[in-house]
Amino acid sequence: MSDTTDRDPEFAFELRVCRWAERAWHPDGPRPAIVARQLGTRNRRWDTVVIEVDPDAFAARHALSADGFDSDLLRVVRHAPAEWQWYRDAIPEPDFPWRHVVPAVHRAAGRGVVEKRRGSRNRVEYKQVAPYPDWVERIVAIENKPNLDASAARALADQLEHDVSRALADEVWVATEATGRRVEPALLEDLPMEVGILAVDGDAADVLWHPSKLTPDPADARQRLVLAERAYDRGWRAYLDTMRPDCRHFELSRRGMALVPRCAAKECYQSQRECAHSCTDFEPEPPIWRTNGWPIEGGPGKGLRQILESRRERARKRVFEKRRTHDD
C-alpha cells in the first residue's frame, strides 16, 4: 500500500520523516538530536521538530528526570540554587503573582528534581539536586508535504515566511516525497529561498535546497527551551495518546524503518483524526486478549504502547552513544 492511495497520506509521511530524522539527522552529517512532532507556539505549530543537543549535557538532563518540564517547572528547576535559598531570591521575578510559583516548587520537590524545606520566618526554601544543563544546541523546524504541488506551495508560503522572519527555529525545512524526475517539482515552486527542501525516498532523504541559517532572538531563549522540553517529553511516537490502540482492528505496520498505524477494518494507514472515539468501525479488544499475558499482559493495545515507549527510550540512549562521533 502506498501513501498516494491512503486516506491520509500526510500522517504516514510525517511519521516516516520523523523516523528518518531520528536515525540520520543532519543531511550534512550526523548530529546528535531528538525528534518530536506537532509542536510549536500558540501561533504556529510545526509538523516535525528536531532538537540538536550536546550529548554530555543531554545525558545530564536525562539523569535529572526522564520526564519533561512544563513552563512552571522549568522556571523552578533551571534557577534552583546550589545552596538553600528563599525561592523568591533564587527565581527571576515572573510576570504573574509569586503565589503561583510556590505550587511549582512543591511539584518539583515531589518529583525529586529539587529539595525544599521551611526556612526562617517559615519561608519556602529550596536548592538543586543537580544543575540544569545547557543541553539544547539548535532547533530545526520541518514542514511535511508529500505532494508539494503549486497549490500546496502557495498554502505553505505565508507560514514559511512567518517562520523565517520570526526565527524561533535555527533552520526551516520542507520535506516532500521524491518523484524521481530529473528536476524535482519542489524546486520549481515558489517557496522562501531561506527554506531548505528535502526529497524523501523510502528511508533516505536528499537535499534539494540548503536552508539559510537563521538568528533567533536571545529574548526567545526561554520559549525555545520550553519547546525543547516538550519535545523531550513527548517525542514523536505519542500519537497513540489520541488514537484507539485498544481496538481489535488497530495495527502498527512497518513502513520502511517506521511503524505506522494501520486499520485492518478500513484497510488503510490512518490518522489521529480518523482513529478516534467517533469511529464507527471501533471494536474493543476481546477480554480474553487482555488476560493470561497474551501476548503481553494487558492486551495488544497496551503492548503497542510499550513498544513505542521502549523505542523512544532507545532513541534517547543512542544520543548518549553519539558523544565520540559528535566530538570528532
Automatic annotation (TrEMBL):
Superkingdom classification of source: Archaea
This protein's name = Uncharacterized protein
